[in-house]
Amino acid sequence: MSKKVLVVDDEQQIIDFLEHFLARFDIQVKKTAKSVEALEVCADFKPDCVFLDIQMPGQDGLCVLKEIRKRHPDQKVIMITGKEEKECQDRARKYGAIDYITKPLDLADLSAKIKEHVLGE
To answer: Considering 38, 59, 86, 115, which has the largest number of Cβ atoms within 10 A of its Cβ?
Structure first.
């Protein structure tokens, strides 16, 4: 049975890239560009991991992360950020993110995180 990942990002290029990249690992992907839809999709889809952008219009990713952790305490969430701000990364970990990736995406780093957190290798 293939693993499942939810990708939440307001940048369509990132969504498309991650969908294509995750397919290489035979991972089923659901995607949304709207933070308000993330909680509903997460509940219905039951992903093995969520890739969640921090900076999004409307409700930011850290608020969504807190709500995901409240509703689904065991849900794995990897934050996506365009900024390497230690404070933001520390807050994400405090709120329950298991890891983070930075834009532009580093393919070796992304592969390693997928193998570790999604595939359990």
So the answer is: 38
pLDDT digits (tens, 9 = 90+) for 26-37: 999 999 999 889
Does residue 77 contact residue 97 with C-beta atoms inside 8 Å? yes
SS (H, E, C) 12-28: HHHHHHHHHHHHCCCCE
Token output for 105: 């995406």
Dihedral angle computed from the Cα positions of residues 17, 18, 19 and 20, in that order, rounded to the nearest 10 degrees: 50
Q: What is the pTM of this model?
A: 0.94
Phi-psi region of 111 (alpha: psi -120 to 50; beta: other; left: phi over 0): alpha
Order of strands, edge to edge, in the sheet holding 4-8?
28-32, 4-8, 49-53, 76-81, 99-102
What domains can you pick out in the chain, each with its CATH number? 4-116 (3.40.50.2300)
